[in-house]
Amino acid sequence: MKPDDIHRAMSILNEESRSWRTPAVTIVAEDSRSPYKVLVSCIISLRTKDEVTARASQMLFEHAATPEAMQQLSAPEIAKLIYPAGFYRTKAEQILAISRKLAAEYDGRVPDSLDELLTFRGVGRKTANLVLTLGFGLPGICVDTHVHRICNRWGYVATRTPDATEMALRAQLPPEYWIDINDLLVAFGQNICLPVSPRCSLCRLNELCARIGVTHSR
């Protein structure tokens, strides 16, 4: 994909996304407008299927929707509520530690600084950027496995890690797409551009895509 092709690609993805299921964390953001809920649901979503993330987040927030309420629960209680999310016991401890720190040091408010978010237990660049973009509407590029895989498959970037992909996108992706690219590529990656055997015959981006690393498609 040539750099200028990104405008056409994003336009097509915006059209196609109307028929795709919205990612679970995005639904949380749209329904709650709460940076805290975005942060917690993103923690839950790591290595977890979207439908599990949605159910686990809903169950947890029915019991505790603020840092102050969350710290009244024990880690085993949180773990039970978010089960069967992947690594649910570890995530429960992370959620509790984050909630305690927010309540004690930030008056219960999630900071809107990337550097500050990265000081919280279990929060990496993907999660921090998602909180900034979905929780606060601030500029950021959230790069998960879908964004990393697809941008390299397109040939839009040539990187080895998600962090390197984020830096490459910051250098060349037009700012108007920074917030939207994660939502669009997550949905695209779940529905069309699958990790193994992508549905290239159905893809409207076929002629723009270099198909780097694709050995078999449908």
Shape: globular
Order of helices and strands: HHHHHHHHHHHH
Portion of residues in beta strands equals under 5%
Largest sheet: none
Helix-residue proportion: 55-70%
Q: How many DSSP helices?
A: 12
Radius of gyration: 18 Å
Low-confidence parts, pLDDT < 50 over ≥5 residues? none
Structure classification: mainly alpha
In words, what does this structure look like?
This protein has 218 residues and is mostly helical. The chain contains twelve helices and no strands. Helix 3 packs across helix 4, helix 3 runs antiparallel to helix 9 and helix 10 crosses helix 12. The protein is globular, with a radius of gyration of 18 Å. The model has no long low-confidence stretch (mean pLDDT 96).
Summed up, what is this model?
The protein is mainly α.
